[in-house]
Amino acid sequence: MKDALLATLIEEYSTVEAFASILALESRTLASASPMEDLPSIVEKKTELIGVLARLEAARDTQLAELGYPAGWSGMELAASTDTRVAAQWTLLQKSAERARRANTNNGELIRVRMDYNQRALAALQVNMPRKANFYGPDGRIPAHSGV
């Protein structure tokens, strides 16, 4: 039964590494001049991998229960304490997940900076100018003068 747990950990590790690769691509895309072309496919792939990770985590929790361990981190710590192969793979998975977490946090910051930049650019474009005759309105028309 620990072989099944080990196989799940290996698959989880591979999936987290794939997720980290997508995060690296997302980071480069967010730093580019026009990221909107590539972001939808990146978000789609991230969503797919998150689903795979959720399925693997559920499988791992089921396997832990079958071995008599609690679910989650505490169960994995107990399982790892009794098998060196599981311990080694669990350590790899934890390190990979931490790298992915840092990359995801970094990408969140890149998104925040880009949003801030866009807000400032929008504010600069929305300069409050007094309406003057013959200026085009928001609808592209010259407003009619009342009282003339």
UniProtKB/TrEMBL annotation:
Give GO BP annotations, semicolon-separated. Answer: bacterial-type flagellum assembly
For this protein, the parts annotated as crossing the membrane are: none
Q: Cite the InterPro entries for this sequence.
A: FlgN-like, FlgN-like_sf
Keywords of the record, alphabetical order, are:
Bacterial flagellum biogenesis, Cell projection, Cilium, Flagellum
Task: Output the Pfam families linked to this UniProt entry.
Answer: FlgN
Query: What is the top-level taxon of the source organism?
Result: Bacteria
Protein family per UniProt: Belongs to the FlgN family.
Function as written in the Swiss-Prot or TrEMBL entry: Required for the efficient initiation of filament assembly.
Q: What is this protein called?
A: Flagellar protein FlgN
The organism encoding this protein is Paraburkholderia ginsengisoli
